[in-house]
Amino acid sequence: MSTGASQQGTGGTGADDANGVAPLADDRPYVDGTAVSAAELRDEVERLSNEEQQHVDDLREEVADSVAELASRFNVKARVIERKDEAVATLHQNLDRARHVAADGVVTARHTAAERPGLVAGVVAALLVLLVVVLRRRRG
Question: Quick check: 122 pLDDT over 70?
């Protein structure tokens, strides 16, 4: 920051040699107004204030986002309800898909049975033979 400030009090007296005005404290800058005009100083203060305000606003937004995320993590009931709703929606989608597949399978089976009754009779006979073999092995 170029405020035209000079550090006074390095000699221990704390008084300005040019006009006899002492700074507030030895560690604070003393602006005599000769290096920079008052308008330039005001512009610089305004610019720095705007930058700091923007920085503070950015930090506030970050903190608000963090608090919202932490609050949502600690709200177990809402998280359970959300997961339940997701699971129910997924289940409904899968059931709808299974219904469509089953309906398509029935249509395909009816079409095949109408076109090739011998093939259907052979498949049914093979299933009956398989069922008889499995039942005999279990009994004895």
Answer: yes
